[in-house]
Structure formats: C-alpha cells, structure tokens
Design a protein that fits this description.
By secondary structure, the chain is of the alpha+beta class. 16% of the residues lie in helices and 47% in strands. The chain has one domain: OB fold (Dihydrolipoamide Acetyltransferase, E2P), CATH 2.40.50.
C-alpha cells in the first residue's frame, strides 16, 4: 500500500514538473545554425497614466531541423539551458509566412 502512494506522488510530481511555459511569437531571425529568434508581443499598462504600451521580448529557441523561417508564427516551450541564451525549443510552426 505504501508503494502505491509513492507511485501516485511520483506521477503528480512528474506532471507538475512537465507543465512547462509555452509561448507563441513571430520568428524575427533564423540566421544562426539550429537557432531562431522569436519575438513575443504584449501590452503593459502605464502605472501613472493608464495608457497601454506595446512591449516585446526576444527569446532564443532551438530549431533542430532549421524549418522555421522569418515571419513564421511559432509555438515554443521552455527547456533546460541549451546555451548562454537559449532556454526554449521549437514545438511547432502554427502558420507559415506568406511569400511575396
């Protein structure tokens, strides 16, 4: 009976640990090998004036197959540190960029 409690506690820990941060953003650069730069936009309210300001954050993400191109809308998720700046990996390409 004690083993069953340990197994269920272990499963709960694993599920909690695997709940990783997932973000969507636009690929701004794909010039590096197996690395893309993803820009994620958000709105931030000014403390004093209440006006909403557009802000963005750049994330470096691992792209194993070099399949993402600039302008693509992608989904990335958190992972272990892969380099000095890379803390995310590419999950999927939500929408390809339009070719002009």
């Amino acid at each position: 009976m004690a083993e069953q409690k340990t197994e269920t506690a272990g499963a709960a820990e694993t599920a909690e640990r695997n709940a990783r941060r997932t973000l969507e953003g636009i690929v701004k650069s794909a010039k590096m090998k197996k690395t893309i730069v993803v820009e994620s936009n958000y709105l931030q309210k000014h403390a004093k004036y209440g006006k909403y300001l557009k802000k963005y954050t750049k994330y470096y993400a691992h792209d194993e197959k070099n399949e993402a191109k600039p302008g693509d809308l992608v989904e990335i998720t958190g992972t272990r540190p892969l380099s000095k700046l890379k803390r995310f990996r590419l999950v999927r390409i939500v929408r390809k960029a339009e070719q002009v």
